[in-house]
Design a protein that fits this description.
heterodimer, A: mainly alpha, 3 domains, B: mainly alpha, Butyryl-CoA Dehydrogenase, subunit A, domain 3, elongated
Chain lengths: ~325, ~170
């Protein structure tokens, strides 16, 4: 069946002019025109209107437009990381040579939007499914971690305190040990025996004996009330001294800070006016404590403090009891 | 097809609730509405968790949240546009004499974009989605996604230039 007829021949004629007609339809069109010479002469008339494009008209900003678009497109493509290696190389080369292009790319680079990670969804736990533990899993862990930290801290503080107390106790034990050594020595040494007798006999002596055994450690140790702490703060300059023993007279409360070597200079002081203080400023080596305390006790016995010596012993015993409780 | 179990679902909550929320909030600037949309999206995920693979959960969430957001934006568009202009002008005037951080300026610039441009550029920049993934989430063709991102970047850049000129 023929497709081309009097009603539709213009459409096929235009397709023919545009080169869009198939070979079969082209043959059919020519057959049709042969059968209708009037139509044929009309279509082939040189006055038949044909619109010819005016090639002299051009868009003045074409180059600029193309350049701008290509640049923008390429710059954004570079930013989006979708350029091929060769394209990227060419563009980088172009950017490095063109200051305007560099600025342009810099501006595009700034359009990358970074998420604000501080923004969190506040109801996350409510989204979760399962048991209460699952929903609030992190809270449980946080709680458990807090409890653990509290326990560890307590344990650690307790441990430190115990260590400090042990140190403190060690010093006192040495003191007590020395006392007992002194006591046993006294039975062997006739000089000590005599002094012991004096101690028990001279019960009305008015002098005071005050023993302060302090150690510059943590303030949170519960020191017995007769341990004088007031001097501790002033002793920092003696930190490097292994043991410092202080002796002062009642009239002159400013202590003389002396070392054990200077101890005997006080032997001639008025016995009743002597305030006897043994103060260990810093935890020293055991041997040094022994030396210091030996010297101190030797001194006390030499100057014949009488009941004061008993008080000194009693104070030390009380101190030991207080610590061991 | 192997769906998710409860544990996997909860992992998805932990991993993606914040990022979905950030994405929606950056688009609509309404905390409560953003929270509702996130909640709805996760509810839908939970209802379908047995049919959704763990690896596909993020994409499902963003797609659901995006669609919910678009539905909501249609309802509040008029108000949103008015508020947007007000917010934009106020911020520009207020900050004319102050040095704003780039992120603040970009947040203002985002308001100038239309909702599709804003959504695709945020998906691209916030989550690093490929064009194909963005296409799947938004229902746009890949070519459209590219064009929207291209235009969004141009608009953002132009805003940065104009902002500099305003405060100069």
């Amino acid at each position: 069946m023929k497709k081309i007829n009097l009603n539709n021949y213009p459409k096929y004629w235009i397709d023919f002019l545009d080169g869009k007609l198939s070979h079969d339809l082209e043959n059919e069109l020519f057959d049709f025109l042969e059968k209708h010479p009037g139509i044929s002469s009309e279509l082939c008339d040189p006055d038949f209107p044909v619109i010819v494009p005016n090639n002299t008209i051009s868009y003045d900003y074409k180059n600029e437009l193309i350049s701008e678009n290509i640049s923008s497109h390429l710059l954004i493509s570079k930013l989006e990381n979708i350029l091929h290696d060769e394209q990227l190389k060419l563009l980088d080369d172009k950017i490095s040579k063109d200051k305007n292009l560099t600025e342009e790319f810099d501006l595009y680079s700034k359009t990358l939007i970074k998420p604000n990670l501080k923004i969190k969804y506040p109801l996350k736990n409510e989204l979760k499914k399962g048991s209460v533990f699952v929903k609030y899993e992190k809270l449980f862990y946080a709680f458990a971690a807090t409890i653990s930290i509290i326990f560890i801290t307590q344990f650690y503080l307790g441990y430190i305190k115990k260590e400090l107390m042990d140190n403190y106790r060690e010093i006192q034990t040495i003191t007590a040990g020395l006392n007992s050594v002194e006591s046993s020595n006294k039975t062997e040494d006739p000089r000590h025996t005599a002094e012991n007798n004096n101690l028990t006999q001279d019960k009305n002596d008015k002098a005071q004996v005050n023993t302060n055994v302090s150690k510059k450690i943590k303030d949170d140790i519960d020191l017995p009330e007769y341990v004088n702490e007031k001097n501790i703060s002033g002793k920092s300059e003696f930190l490097e001294n292994l043991a410092t023993i202080e002796i002062s007279t009642i009239e002159n409360p400013i202590n003389y800070n002396i070392t054990t070597n200077d101890f005997y200079e006080f032997e001639n002081s008025n016995k009743e006016e002597i305030l006897f203080t043994v103060e260990i400023v810093k935890t020293p080596k055991k041997s040094k404590i022994k030396n210091a305390l030996n010297t101190a006790q030797d001194f006390v016995q030499r100057i014949n403090l009488g009941e004061k010596y008993s008080n000194l012993k009693l104070a030390k015993e009380n101190l030991m009891l207080a610590i061991l409780e | 097809m192997c769906g998710m179990n409860t544990k996997q679902y909860n992992i998805v909550v932990d991993k993606f609730a914040d990022s979905v929320y950030r994405f929606i909030l950056s688009n609509i600037k309404d905390e409560f509405l953003a929270q509702d949309i996130v909640q709805d999206s996760f509810e839908k995920l939970w209802l379908n968790h047995e049919n959704i693979e763990f690896d596909k959960a993020k994409s499902f969430l963003f797609k659901t949240a995006y669609n919910r957001m678009i539905d909501n934006l249609r309802h509040i568009k008029v108000v949103n546009e008015a508020g947007k202009e007000f917010l934009l002008n106020t911020n520009i005037q207020y900050n004319q004499n102050e040095q704003m951080e780039l992120s603040q300026i970009l947040n203002l610039a985002l308001l100038k974009l239309n909702e599709t441009q804003r959504a695709v550029v945020l998906l691209r920049d916030y989550e690093g989605y490929t064009y194909e993934e963005i296409s799947e989430i938004t229902g746009l063709s890949e070519s459209q996604v590219k064009v929207y991102i291209f235009r969004a970047r141009q608009n953002l850049k132009n805003f940065l230039v104009s902002y500099k000129e305003i405060i100069r």
